[in-house]
Amino acid sequence: MTIGRLAPSPTGGLHLGHARTFLVAWLAARSANGRIILRIEDLDAGRVRPGALEGAMADLRWLGLDWDEGPDIGGPSGPYIQSERMNPYQVTLERLKSLELVYPCTCTRADIERASAAPHPEDEGPTYPGTCADRSVGDARELGDRTFAWRFRVPPDELCWFDSFLGEEQVSSPRRLGGDFVVARSGAGPSYQLAVVHDDATMGVNQVIRGDDLIPSTPRQILLYKALGWRQPVFGHIPLAVGPDGRRLAKRDGSLKLATLRESGVNPARLVGWVARSCGWSDRIEEIPPQEWVERYELAKIPRSPWVITPDSLDELRG
What is the per-residue pLDDT across 297-312, written as a single tens digit (0 to 9) for each? Predict the structure, then answer.
């Protein structure tokens, strides 16, 4: 059975870009008669906003999206909030330690702290030069109270995977593109990469649809799947929504937030139809809810270029 997931971060209100990505992910699972898991990714504690978790679920429900497991309804794979899953993450980290696939790294506090959040291309720093790579797991005992990160040892080989949206084999060299990456921080828990792989694997997620800004994370996650002996999901990366300046949408732009649109009286079925048109499933805005797009869903029809949202298109959305 296909199992997909919606995984918002409670760091602010969901915006139109999230609406599109989550709609596509939802339809990808539902069109295969699959299940949906709602997971809240709140490891980046410093950016979590009060009420954002409840707001994200309200936004998704307003769009007409539902789920079969989640923090509000439970399920066999709970808990569904990452900050409540710390003990299992530690067990997974211990497995990597036992295999000597990680080592303690004392380089740059900023790099260690940044590992909690989902990385984007503009966040990627230079390739890690392997400064601490000669250390073993046991060397962590000699560091005392120094802050350090556990870095995963990236092998030199190229990595290939199939992307369900791009429709072709992707080839990457993780060693050259970032190098050894952070999987946990001493005394502070797992990185985004480790938590996401652990959660998707243990929750049975086998279909991941997300924005193409996360393509750099995919080879790192595949390396973790291989190291842990877990089966990787099928990944599909779709283009982001961007503003007229070409920059990806941000949660700080209140005019594009779903809560703002909801409060201003926008019809959610019109928004869904507006998004569906941007995906190539219709040549006009059809005001119908998500379930009525299930039979018309085609991942391959989504344009390869970013979805540009302009003031004029927003006026059209508002009718």
Answer: 999 999 999 999 998 8
Please give the residue range of the domain that contains residue 187: 82-238
What secondary structure letter does DSSP report for 128?
Answer: P
Q: Which two tokens stand for residue 243?
A: 């503003």
Count CB neighbours of 162 within 10 A. Answer: 12
Q: Which residues are catalytic, by number?
A: 251
Residue closest to 149 by CA, chosen among 115, 178, 186, 123: 186
Cβ neighbours of 239 (radius 10 Å)? 21
Burial tier of 83 (Cβ tally within 10 Å: 0-12, 13-18, 19+): middle
Backbone angles phi, psi at 273, to 5 degrees: -65, -35
Looking up residue 137, the CATH number of its domain turns out to be 3.40.50.620
Residue 90 lies in a domain: yes
The secondary element (H helix, E strand) that includes residue 97 is helix 86-98
State how beta strands 189-190 and 181-185 pair: antiparallel
- 182 touches 143 (CB < 8 A): no
- Assess if residue 286 is contained within a domain: no
Residues 6+ apart with CB under 8 A from 298: 280, 281
217-265 residue pLDDT tens: 999 999 999 999 999 999 999 999 999 888 888 766 666 899 999 999 9
* Structural domains in the chain (count): 1
Domain annotation covers residue 60: no
260, exposed or middle or buried, with CB in 10 Å at 0-12, 13-18, 19+?
A: middle
Asked whether residue 280 is assigned to any structural domain, the reply reads no
Computed on alpha carbons and rounded to an integer, the radius of gyration of the chain in Å comes to 20
For the residues 49-63, what does the mean pLDDT come to?
95
